[in-house]
UniProtKB/TrEMBL annotation:
Keywords: Cell membrane, Membrane, Transmembrane, Transmembrane helix, Transport
Transmembrane segments: 28-47, 80-97, 109-129, 135-155, 214-236, 256-282, 323-341
Source species: Streptomyces kasugaensis
GO cellular component terms, semicolon-separated: plasma membrane
Annotated localization: Cell membrane
InterPro entries: ABC_BtuC-like (IPR037294), ABC_transptr_permease_BtuC (IPR000522)
Family of this protein: Belongs to the binding-protein-dependent transport system permease family. FecCD subfamily.
Transmembrane as UniProt keyword: yes
Gene Ontology biological-process entries: siderophore-iron import into cell
Membrane disposition: Multi-pass membrane protein
Full protein name: Iron ABC transporter permease
GO molecular function, one term: transmembrane transporter activity
Record has Signal as a keyword: no
Organism superkingdom: Bacteria
Length: 349
């Protein structure tokens, strides 16, 4: 636990009194609920066409068939719901990944999930002629699962260590993205189709995709929350975790399964959106601390805030065009990554 606290800076190493710590965590979660409500309203009201909040409310509770009603209910509401679900999944997957690997720079892509999903979708488009986003969902999920299984096997399966998992994930990522880029270069039709999926966006996604992916998202979240206690023990090191009664190998395998379900389903619906799983755990540790029992719910709450806020920013910076949410989060995540590396605190893990 000292190592994890060290990664968060000097202030994190001085434990707050239990009462103050509980109050800080509760306040942080309540603030997250307020921020989520604000960005949901912003997502429904702000865009190429600005819609007053009272019209948004009317469209939701008593639609009268106006154009504003159609925009809110048919375009922005599905987009917002997908952003909430995908954001929560990516944030939670990032928290599980960082806790599992004891690496503050880890995000779900480290397990090859994004690369596996992309490789499966590009194969479906180029070699199988698939053109339906509904089918992309299942190919992306299958590709994410196969990539995660491969990384786990290369990392040593139940005997895997955080370092071996990270190295195996890096190798699989490089190989799969090389395959994706190569297939797109030799098939321009695939390149044109993939660019609409691979950039990572909430625009143009049908709510039916979310309905189909929801069982996987819910299963991944339940599994992640159920692993909070043994993952907290593993943050002390494998030997200490075993002494505390945690099943290290089983916990690691189930954690990889949770990450695959969460990130695979989110990637299948929205395309690969990076850095949310990296940024949010760092941000919420300010009040949640490193304990996964508090960290995981906080990440699941604040990640949709970042996702929707980034989506709203992308709508308004270059009107009437939009910047995809994946580009906005990549820009923000790149700045955070540079900040973390410059502080050199990651070396303390």
């Amino acid at each position: 636990m000292t190592a994890v606290a060290g990664a968060l800076g000097p202030a994190a190493q001085v434990p707050a009194p239990p009462g103050r710590r509980a109050a800080l965590r509760t306040t942080g979660l309540l603030l997250g609920l307020v921020l989520l409500a604000v960005v949901v309203l912003a997502s429904l009201a702000i865009g190429t066409r600005q819609i007053p909040l009272h019209d948004v409310w009317s469209a939701l509770v008593s639609p009268s068939g106006t154009e504003n009603d159609a925009i809110v209910r048919q375009l922005r509401l599905p987009r917002t719901l997908i952003g909430i679900a995908a954001g929560a999944a990516l944030g939670l997957a990032g928290a599980v990944m960082q806790t599992l690997t004891r690496n503050p720079l880890a995000d779900p892509g480290l397990l090859g999930v994004n690369a596996g999903a992309s490789a499966a979708v590009v194969t479906a488009i180029s070699l199988l002629g698939v053109e339906s986003f509904d089918l992309y969902l299942w190919f992306a999920l299958a590709g994410a699962a196969l990539a995660a299984i491969l990384v786990n096997l290369l990392g040593g399966s139940r005997a895997a260590t955080p370092v071996r998992l990270a190295l195996a994930g890096t190798a699989v990522n490089a190989a799969l993205f090389g395959y994706v880029n190569g297939l797109q270069l030799v098939d321009l039709g695939t390149l044109e189709t993939m660019r609409h999926w691979s950039v990572g966006t909430l625009a143009g996604r049908d709510a039916d995709l979310l309905v189909k992916a929801l069982p996987m998202l819910v299963a991944g979240m339940l599994l992640a929350f159920g692993l909070a206690r043994p993952l907290g023990a593993m943050a002390l090191g494998d030997d200490s975790a075993r002494a505390l009664g945690a099943h290290v190998g089983r916990t690691r395998v189930l954690s990889i399964a949770a990450i695959t379900l969460l990130c695979g389903a989110a990637t299948a619906v929205c395309g690969p959106i990076g850095f949310i799983g990296l940024m949010i755990p760092h941000a919420v540790r300010v009040f949640s601390g490193p304990d996964p029992r508090w960290l995981f719910p906080a990440c699941a709450l604040y990640a949709p805030v970042l996702m929707l806020a980034s989506d709203v920013v992308g709508r308004v910076v270059v009107p009437p065009s939009e910047i995809e949410v994946g580009i906005v989060t990549a820009f923000l995540g790149g700045l955070l990554f540079i900040h973390l590396v410059r502080q050199r605190k990651v070396a303390q893990l």
